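Re: weekly structure request thread

Next one in the queue (323 aa):
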Amino acid sequence: MTPLRLIGVGAYLLGVFVLVPAFIALTGRWDFYYTLTSVALLSVGAAGVWLTFYIGRINIGQGAYALVGGYVSAILVMKAGVSFWATLPLAGIACAAVSVVIGLPILRLRGVYFAMVTLVLTEVARLTALALPVTNGAKGITSIPLPGELSILGLTIVPDFASLANPKLAFYLLAAVLMVLTYFVLWRIVNSRLGHLCRSLQQNEELAASIGVNTAMLRVLAYSISSFFGGIAGAMFVAISQSIYPSSFVVTDSVNFMLYCFLGGLGYVFGPMLGTFLLYFGWDLLSVAKQYQLLIYSGAMIALMLVLPNGVLSLLDRKETRK
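Done, posted below.
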């Protein structure tokens, strides 16, 4: 990583973990913590969608895995008495396992065919949650306790959230750490041999297979990692809201996960993070337009796709080209 990029990463971490809490403490706008926590967790889910784009697949089903991850965490906490900290990775692993079973047949599809199948997944997950007794149907699972203490060898790493004066700050910091770790892992994948192999699938899958690349295994692996990110994001949302319902994640959420990637830039690892930030706050800012909110939003998205088809981060490439 170049010195300039290291400075940029350092400035980003300083802003997320120091400047933002300091600003909120000064202004007293504690409600911003929930907003920024939501943005961080949505960007985690979008990171998984970006990875499936990286292997040449249009994924519109991340909402399904967020819902599955949320229910896995909620059921383990409420019905099995498992600590939230243990359910967080378990939710991701469960989603990865489900995605392997689903991905084996559907990842053979490409283009709009794969996209339409994944679009159906979120609705299937919702209907399944409505039908299963363990999920309490339409009543959902409520009164989920806040995350308890996390300790290792008697040393407290994270205190009991219920004992904190301001759990919102704790959730924000936890979501921010999760976001940073997710994008670090994503960056490492892209810049590893696995990432180069994934890029070969995006460019020419037949050629990659002809030189000995196990394309089927690679597709399933990338899709399972993508679903893992969706599962832990869903589990975190459940911990914050302390409840989950079949409608907690719907088709609209899956579409938004995809739009975050398009807006930020499909060719950039941190594109989903920027896209989530812009789209989330952009929608809120347009609320002043009232009945014209959706019209302006749709028009702006179409204009951005026409002017910047490679996402907002492609502006950086244009500046470098001019130089």
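The mean pLDDT is 91. Residues 6 and 170 are 26 Å apart (CA to CA).
Next request, please.
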